[in-house]
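for the writeup, i need someone to sanity check this before i put it in the appendix. the sequnce is what the collaborator sent (i think, or maybe the updated version? ugh). structure was predicted straight from it, no edits. if anything looks off just tell me and ill rerun, i have time this weekend
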Amino acid sequence: MTYPTYHNLIGGEWMPAASGKTTLNVNPADHDDVVGSFPSSGPEDVAKAVAAAKKAFATWRLVPAPKRAEILVRAGNLLQQRKEQFARDMTREMGKVLAETRGDVQEAIDEAFYVAGEGRRLFGQTTPSELQNKFAMSIRMPVGVVGLITPWNFPMAIPSWKLFPALVGGNTCVIKPATDTPLSTYNLVQTLVDAGLPDGVVNIVSGSGGSTGNALIEHPDVRAISFTGSSEVGSHVAQRAAATFKPVSLEMGGKNAQIVLDDANLELALEGALWGAFGTTGQRCTATSRILLQKGIAKKFTDEFVARAKALKIGNGLDESVQVGPQVNKGQIETSTQYVEIATKEGGKLLCGGHALTAGDYAKGTFFEPTIFAGITPNMRLAREEVFGPVVAILEFDTFEQGIEIANSIEYGLSSSMYTKDLNRAFAAIRDLEAGITYINAPTIGAEVHLPFGGVKATGNGHREGNGAIDFFTTWKAVYVDYSDKLQRAQIDNAE
């Protein structure tokens, strides 16, 4: 069997891992389809990449921000030209259907053009000084070398959310892509290189979280870490980074609720639930994993939702007629299976799905049926814990207030949704739902790059992607210019 071999990008050169070890990137829909071989890197490779980034920072930070932004414009144009090929590559390595991988690449295109505009908007403030003949202002400065750790479910969009604002802010980067989906990050970074990015400004080191990720987090020359992944791993990242006082941006898990009130447009709510629950095979931090139904419409909604879920076409995402692709690996199948067992033991009623698909066309992949449970109560594990697969819990409630209470009763707080025609209740939900994102009459998925993306509670630590990323990837400097030609002692002299 022949397949491409990829290397780490360090200081503008492609090189294998120091250990010589590699990992195969395999199509989750067809394990006979090997996408490529990628390095299994370790601390030595990370050290080389950080050294290259540190060297490049000396000159990159001096490039005017509008000039840095011009590279992103060129990269955005190249991504548009390469969109179809990159989408097909992504479907092969991650599994989600082509319509979704095209959207993933489009998000990187949108991010390139949006962040490029920030190259002329890295605004600070000027403010009156409390003393005569003294000028006061604040300016944004780059952080330095930043480490980026990205997930497998949006393998081009999420790296773009981190790389592009970091670059326009004047930082240099070492990125560790997810071991399941490194090619999409390689395609993104190669596009930046083709757009004129200097050597060493972005470096790729592929490998596991334990070996490669920890080395990146703990390296003393890495000044900040941006991480997207599970809450469990995010806690580990934050604790390790704290030892060297690194700021950390964490975007983590979700257990997102779509609330449907009795007065909702049920057809619209059904379409939203189907897309929110089973888009990306449920493998989104914003996936609709809980559907909260007011009792007046619960039976009608549930019956139709189950019928539509059963009709979804499952298969290889390269087939344009397929609606649900595979789960990314065997471990995710095991997790989905485990939660089906848990929900059943706790008294949930399985309405459809519940099994891995292993026969016929599914034999060489990791497929799981769209799965719906009814009879779920707020204290059950399926109502509280993230599955990251196509397994959905239906809960029922009586009043609007009860719906909000159930939605807020979990440790996560990423995305939320309410379907209603009642404007008053819609705005009350916007105020009261404990989440970083709230949708009205739309599903829990569908972020736009120019809005803040992130959550509260166990979902995040206060930082945001999107229009909040510049704040993380720059640091403030206060500047005072005293042109009085004498010593002025601020509060001491000002008090006289």
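Residues 172 and 201 are 5 Å apart (CA to CA). The chain has two domains: 8-252+460-478, 256-440.
thx in advance!!
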